[in-house]
Amino acid sequence: MKHLFIVNPTAGGKDKTELVRRRVEEVFAGREVSYEIYVTKAAMDAPGKIRRAAESGEALRVYACGGDGTFNECVCGAAGLANVAVCPYPTGTGNDFCRMFGEEKDLYWDLRALVEGSEHPIDLIECNGRYCANICSVGIDARIGTDVHTYSKLPLIGGATGYVVSAVVNVLRGITRQMRIRSGAFCAEGENTLVCACNGRFYGGGFNPSTTARPDDGILDVFIVKKVSLLTLARLIGKYAAGKADDYPEYITHLRTDRVEISFNEENVVNIDGEAIFAKEVKMQLLPGAMNLVVPRGMRFFQEAAQPAAARV
Description:
alpha+beta
């Protein structure tokens, strides 16, 4: 088995390449194991590197050293490749995918547990040609999450303040957008606040719309928040973020499906695991078992045991 460490030098605002290198050397000391540390040079550099590394057909384990964006790039590179398994090794600021695992999430910070872990197939969302392991969304949440990066870079604004500024600006621009939404027999057209498709559970730094979504159950939990007033949105947002959307069926429709299509009158931002694309037509489809996830040694979240990596190294 080969081990490939994809390092994003800009994740978290500080280059962690040497930190990753030291930790890798510690864990692999005394092991006759092939590994490579690759520092990305630009956005979406990782998928090509992963696919080239996988061409031989040898088992390849990929460690996404960064935040959710780095993990998403690695997911895009590994999608559909049976000989590749991917895991986050967080060195960035946003690690929403890991939050799904509750108290066990800290195992993803334990490199030795990852190297000695197992593999488990998980579903992916395909969205307009890009892949997503966690959550896709459109609407006010996607617009706020995209613009926060812009406002956080301004003088005297940063962190939580950038999020507040982005929220205020986007609310003033209009909470809702005209959407045409289709999923199986469900069809709706009109003003809507957001649509969120959950393969995982957390996004936006802590929003938890689904408390039961699993990335290996073949089902998308889709939440459609209808047109609401600013006052109602202020009242609902905390409940939605806490996984209580089903308590408000008059405002929030919950679908369990494997696909959803959304059309806009003009281009809108689409959130894909925290990364942004822009489109007028959005197609999200669940692909069962499309990628192998590295499950750290000791994690109990997945009931189905995979072949231990130790037997393959």
